[in-house]
Design a protein that fits this description.
Blueprint (H helix, E strand, L loop, with lengths): L6 E15 L2 H9 L7 E15 L3 E6 L5 H9 L6 E6 L3 E4 L12 H11 L4 H15 L14 H14 L4 E5 L7 H16 L3 E5 L3 H7 L2 E6 L2 E6 L1 H13 L13 H5 L19 H14 L6 E10 L7 E3 L3 E10 L7 E3 L2 E2 L5 E3 L18 E9 L5 E10 L4 E14 L25
Parallel strand pairs: 3-7, 3-8, 5-6, 6-7, 11-18
Antiparallel strand pairs: 1-2, 1-4, 8-9, 10-12, 12-16, 13-17, 14-15, 14-17, 17-18
Bound molecules: adenosine-5'-triphosphate.
């Protein structure tokens, strides 16, 4: 394979100059001046920027407001033409840089999916195949048959993201500032971005959230005044940016530069019905009915199927609003469809951006269960004391062996931890049950 084929985007000496006139009259004077006298100042939105983005990498672009991020991405996507320099793109790009681009507000959501898809170079048949995925991702119900002009901004974002993310491009370009839906939707977007990364696709991500860049990206680029002033490992580049923005003293902090951001998420409460198959722990009749139903509907694919899952509080109530420091049980019930030698259950917890904060499974804990024969229901439980700091989290459920995943429900339960009796620094991720002491040393 030639070196060239490994490069998704090659940017060479890219420059974008705008002519700035003090008054509209200056523009006219310049256009008619017989001696070609200049009445404008040149403003460099991008100044001699060069880099190569390798296929399959996730790139973060950071920089102050006005540093040239959007100009760079718009030039890459072909919305803007460079004043000089070049951009070479290998592959199909899907970009979400400006809400509204590629949408006609008079048309319905469905029509806009086709309109937008066509603009991006997809045929009607290709869009037909993607339609279900786009609709289920956007999850705006009947509104999809209404003109887009009647949408709330949240619905609009959902649809635009749904299209951009599900058309299966080779290169995805996303401005994180546009991912403004509710917390569950944001998690869905980040999860899709992770999926993209795993499939070896190229992602370019503009963000002001430095921990997002550190978490998701392989390489970061820092722009300042239209120039590329730093590139490399995200942790190094974000440090330079923090220094630029906040000064030396704050560099040790790994939290988002937009500090208010995490706080905003704190009380974005989950909906009541997070798990489709809720059965009370002790309701065996309900469980019997559920098992019968699931056996009837079994399509022969999953060897074992998670038929119920959630979080119980100490009284056995299913909850999604948890208190820091209280006791809870994560549980899943798994229906065995074919005889199995081994089955393990797992319960990973992630934050909205996909950072795995905690994960436990029966294999690590050396817990086994017998029998695992067809028709059995295996129940897995983990008792925990909730020492995650106040915030929003997503619990996933897995039934698997080391070699084979039988079933997994990713981010199935969105739960919120509130402060309880334990007041923590709001930017903490976990509570280590600290005992703080102060003393004056006599010497
Ligand atoms: N059409 C234009 N005419 C003149 N100047 C422009 C034009 N478009 C952008 N600029 C200027 O170019 C510079 C870079 O803008 P750009 O939108 O790329 O910045 P950015 O890094 O994306 O900012 P933000 O973080 O605020 O989105 C800014 O100073 C902006 O005012």
């Amino acid at each position: 394979m030639s070196h060239d084929r490994q490069i998704a985007i090659a940017v060479k000496n890219l420059t974008k100059v705008y002519k700035l006139y003090d008054t509209p009259l200056d523009r006219v004077k310049e256009s008619i001046n017989p001696f070609s006298r200049k009445y404008h100042k040149d403003f460099y939105a991008l100044n001699d920027v060069s880099f190569d983005i390798e296929k399959g990498s996730t790139i973060g672009i950071i920089g102050k407001n006005g540093s040239g991020k959007s100009t760079l991405l718009k030039t890459i996507t072909g919305v803007l033409t460079p004043s000089s320099g070049s951009v070479t793109v290998n592959g199909k790009i899907s970009a979400l840089l400006e809400l509204g681009a590629g949408f006609n507000t008079e048309l319905t959501g469905i029509d806009n999916i086709y309109f937008n898809g066509t603009l991006q170079g997809y045929t009607k048949d290709e869009i037909d195949l993607k339609l279900d995925e786009i609709l289920s991702f956007a999850d705006i119900g009947e509104f999809v048959f209404q003109p887009v002009k009647s949408y709330s901004s949240g619905m609009f974002v959902r649809l635009a993201f749904g299209v951009a993310i599900n058309v299966d491009p080779d290169i995805l370009i996303v401005d994180e500032a546009l991912a403004v839906g509710d917390i569950k939707f944001q998690r869905k977007c980040f999860s899709k971005i992770e999926e993209f990364h795993k499939k070896g696709k190229t992602i370019i991500f503009v963000s002001h959230g430095l921990d997002t860049i550190n978490l998701l990206c392989d390489t970061a680029y820092l722009l300042d005044g239209g120039r590329l002033i730093e590139e490399g490992l995200p942790k190094n580049v974000t440090k330079v940016y923090q220094k630029m923005m906040l000064g030396e003293d704050t560099i040790s902090s790994t939290t988002d530069v937009c500090l208010g951001k995490e706080l905003e998420f704190l009380y974005d409460l989950p909906s009541e019905q997070d798990c489709e198959f809720y059965t009370n722990e002790y309701d065996t009749q309900k469980l019997n009915e559920l098992v019968k139903d699931k056996i009837q509907k079994w399509d022969g694919h999953k060897k074992a199927e998670i038929i119920d899952c959630g979080i119980w509080d100490a009284l056995g109530n299913k909850v999604t609003l948890l208190e820091c420091g209280a006791h809870y049980t994560f549980y899943s019930k798994i229906l065995i469809h074919v005889d199995l030698e081994v089955i393990h259950v797992g319960f990973p917890i992630k934050n909205v951006k996909g950072l795995m904060l905690f994960g436990v499974n029966s294999e690590i804990q050396k817990v086994a269960v017998t029998p695992k024969t067809k028709g059995n229901v295996v129940e897995g439980r983990v008792d925990v004391t909730m020492w995650l700091a106040p915030g929003n989290y997503f619990l996933s459920f897995r039934a698997a062996t080391r070699q084979e995943v039988f079933d997994e429900l990713n981010d199935q339960v969105h739960f919120v931890v509130t402060g309880g009796n334990h007041t923590l620094n709001a930017l903490s991720v976990v509570n280590l049950e600290p005992k703080v002491t102060l003393r004056t040393l006599a010497f």
